[in-house]
Amino acid sequence: MQLEPRWPTVIGTIGIVIGIVLLIDTADDMLTLRWTAEDWRRIFAPQIADAIARAMPSVGMRILSTVVQVALAALLIVGSLALRRRSSAGVAHCRLWAWLAVAWIVIQVARGAVWLRRFGDDLPSVGAVTPHAYALFAGALAVAILLAFPVFLLVWLSRPTVRAEFERWAS
Prior knowledge:
By secondary structure, this protein is mostly helical.
């Protein structure tokens, strides 16, 4: 008797956790939607707070970003739940999420590059390292972390043994 593989449960659970974290992060962003420089000064030094207030995208752009992020998180959660139930729809949803997440990350990296060119000189220096160096390092690290799960999913779900397994599942 052959046991069913555990990967749908494991990967589905990881996807659910990541989706919930994405929803929590988005909710946190919503809390600062209408913040002014004065609000930011409660957390940061005045110079940094003023730079944040000047560099913040419009409320409309932030709402659009929130809607996209909530939709992506929901798609990942729905796909991951279906993956745990061994439904082929879960594979389709997870693949769709992975491709959309990669596209969204590319868009956000491009926005970040434009932001850094426009507002990078407003960032205060920390020691001998320029703020651009910190921003580039942090950006590269963030991109690597953000791409890890979507790329993993795309690679994992394209493996022949994995494909053979989920092709046996019902929709």
